[in-house]
Amino acid sequence: MSTTLQNDLLIKAAFSQQTERPPVWMMRQAGRFMKEYWDIKNKYSFLEMCKTPEIAADVTMLPVDLLGIDAAILFSDILVTAEAMGGDLSFEQGVGPRFSNPVRSVKDAEALSTNCLDKLQYVADAIKVIQQRLDSRIPLIGFAGAPFTILSYLVEGGSSKDFKLTKLMLNNQPELAHMILQKIADVTVEYLNMQIAAGVNAIQLFDSWALALSWNDYRDFSHYYNKQIIAKLNRKDIPVISFCKGSSVFAPMMIEAQPDVVSIDWNADLKNIKQSLPQGIAVQGNLDPFVLYADKPVIKKKIIELFERMRGENGFIFNLGHGIMPDIPFDNVKYAIEVVKEFSY
Ligand code: CP3
């Protein structure tokens, strides 16, 4: 499918082919920093938006139409898989995601369903509507949460600062953690293959909270499952991007799972990371999202600095080290994208 795209910069860069400039998209590019997002959000709940294909498509298209990015990302959430498995999920304003039935015992884990793809059909339907709207202009990125990050939400019952209960489970009840992680991994493989069948052009696996783990725990409780998932995808010509906070430490292990791209957080020097990885592995990143609060000349300077550093490297996708914060000025995001698009090698 990627061969027919009018703008295939992202696909080319993901496969480490030469591009005239780095492609740009931003995590959380369809979100609360946009007035147009609120115009929709004020009428529906977040989950209603995700579950109504026409609305999910409207929101996916906002940054395409208003920002001119080089890739769209499906409007959904990483936690929809956990909901389909039986998690009672809600999103409360100012609180974030909540599961009213946390998974903390063998009985809770046994109750999680792995036969739940039909509950996620709305995602396939949304992808089809989005692809009609995109009309082959730019690629569409599909995504899922990685098992460890999903496990943390299920165990904690929501967001957590320290992942205390999750780590307690990994330490005291590793078999229980593995049982839940395997169930999530099985559902995630089916879910991502459903997204591929529905027409996404790239996949990103979000393991946002892997940075909480030690090297060995990352290997056993996160990497082991991510590797299984990536190996079981019907990839064809679809690149896989592996994201985690902590990637500047874990990148050498992440690449053993054979993604095409590793998304790097802002602690690392991107060029050093790139050169430490085997040929053919692309990098994505890694501007500190807080730069987008700054004055425009500062935004420009930091982006140009990153690009000068990456000059001559194929396989570079410009992104932030993590998502856009809701109170970042829209104008600054738009300006950053203009700066990227003016740049040419
Ligand atoms: O990037 C995009 O624009 C695509 C849509 C997208 C959302 N969530 C929409 C969303 C994607 C790719 C995600 C992934 C996601 N969701 C992650 C991984 C990425 C990351 O940030 O590390 C995680 C950890 C979640 C879980 C989640 N969803 C949290 C913690 C929250 C609440 C806190 C917050 O940051 O808003 C959400 C809600 C959420 N997901 C919103 C959006 C637009 C806000 C919903 C609202 O309008 O209230």
UniProtKB/TrEMBL annotation:
List the catalytic activities from the record.
uroporphyrinogen III + 4 H(+) = coproporphyrinogen III + 4 CO2
Gene3D superfamilies with a match to the protein in the record: 3.20.20.210
Q: Which UniProt keywords apply?
A: Cytoplasm, Decarboxylase, Lyase, Porphyrin biosynthesis
- The positions annotated as site (Transition state stabilizer) read D77
Binding of substrate, residues:
R28, Q29, A30, G31, R32, D77, Y153, S208, H322
What GO cellular-component annotations does this UniProt entry give? cytosol
Please state where this protein is localized.
Answer: Cytoplasm
Q: In which pathway does it act?
A: Porphyrin-containing compound metabolism; protoporphyrin-IX biosynthesis; coproporphyrinogen-III from 5-aminolevulinate: step 4/4
Provide the primary localization.
cytoplasm
Q: Which InterPro entries match?
A: UROD/MetE-like_sf, Uroporphyrinogen_deCO2ase_HemE, Uroporphyrinogen_deCOase
Query: Which one of the record's GO molecular function terms can you name?
Result: uroporphyrinogen decarboxylase activity
What is this enzyme's EC?
4.1.1.37
UniProt cross-references to Pfam families, sorted A to Z: URO-D
Ranges in coiled-coil conformation: none
Biological process terms in GO annotation: protoporphyrinogen IX biosynthetic process
Q: What sequence ranges are listed for the domain Uroporphyrinogen decarboxylase (URO-D)?
A: 23-32, 141-157
Quaternary structure, from the entry: Homodimer.
Q: What does this protein do?
A: Catalyzes the decarboxylation of four acetate groups of uroporphyrinogen-III to yield coproporphyrinogen-III.
Q: Please give the family membership noted in the entry.
A: Belongs to the uroporphyrinogen decarboxylase family.
Q: Which HAMAP family match?
A: URO_D (MF_00218)
| Name the UniProt record assigns to this protein | Uroporphyrinogen decarboxylase
Q: Which organism is it from?
A: Sphingobacterium siyangense
